[in-house]
Amino acid sequence: MNKPSYPDWQHQVQWLPAIDWNVKLFGGHERAVDRHWAMPQESHIGFEIILVLEGSQETVMGGTRYILHANDIILIPPGITHRNRCESDQGMRYFCVHFNVDDPHFRQEMIKHNRIIFRSGTAENVRLRSLLDHWLLMVRRGGGHSTEDRFRLQAQLFELLGMLASFSIPADAQQAEPAAPASVQYAKAIAEAMKAQFNPHQLDRSESPDNRVRIDRIAASLGISTGYALEVFRKVYGLSPRQYLSELKLHEAKVLIQQPDLSLKEIAERLGYAHLSHFSRQFKRWTGMSPLQFREQGR
Length: 299
What we know:
It comes from Paenibacillus phyllosphaerae. Residues 193-297 form the HTH araC/xylS-type domain. This is AraC-like DNA-binding protein. InterPro entries: AraC-bd (IPR003313), AraC_XylS_family_regulators (IPR050204), Homeodomain-like_sf (IPR009057), HTH-like (IPR037923), HTH_AraC (IPR018060), HTH_AraC-typ_CS (IPR018062), RmlC-like_jellyroll (IPR014710), Tscrpt_reg_AraC-type_HTH (IPR020449). There is one protein chain. By secondary structure, the protein is of the alpha+beta class. It folds into 2 domains: 23-168, Regulatory protein AraC (Jelly Rolls, Sandwich), CATH 2.60.120.280; 182-297, Orthogonal Bundle (Arc Repressor Mutant, subunit A), CATH 1.10.10. The chain contains 12 helices and 8 strands. It has helices spanning 6-9, 104-112, 123-141, 147-168, 182-197, 209-212, 215-222, 226-237, 241-257, 264-270, 276-287, 291-297; strands at residues 23-33, 47-54, 57-61, 64-68, 73-76, 82-86, 92-101, 117-118. It has a 5-stranded antiparallel beta sheet with strand order 1-7-2-5-8. Helix 5 (182-197) packs across helix 8 and helix 5 (182-197) packs parallel to helix 9 (241-257). It is globular and about 65 Å long. The protein starts with 5 loop residues before the first helix and ends with a helix.
């Protein structure tokens, strides 16, 4: 009997799906704040999940006001403008984690089904809390984190993404993943190109990140018009490429500022600012505090 050729037998077996995602954990922290605490209006390129440990928090998002009490959890999707503040007179304590996955289908499902609040005592809250408690214990343990810790963090992040995906799919929904439309693929390719071209760590700084990341060049490389590129990107990611680049800058700025061996002037240059004062003003618009205040707060 002749053995089937590869093109023949590959259609006779079941395959696992190919996965090509970029998944990132930006970090997490526990913090106690007084009753006057408030964050300025902001948005992020990734997801933000907040667990209220004590007291109450007000979150305003998309014109809707949410009040969270102890053990409530809120998930803030990427690109959503929001504002958080303490709602209780006795102050509050919270645990917050920022993470991201570049799969547009996941983003769309989370936004489409509007799974934002997970109230204390619900089955979904219990599942999320069990995982967040592992991270909270790691934060409270302090000290350095081993390679094993980092691998466990990554595995638990995938577990969290799996939980959130299961929460966003109705029980009667079809489980088979539909073929990705061309618009989603183009939007993802644009985001990948922007992240690749935005590299504040490169030694050659003859061209600023703003000049390197040109949506018209990216669109031309994909064989589509600039207008179509802008349209599909906003449709899939919920924000413009310019806003996405601004969020990339903000996250990178926060990471660099936490490195005490880097001067603020050098950080400003890496991010494409000709003068430190320009960077400082922009960072304060983003966060409500100066780069120096942000660095001192993290100590």
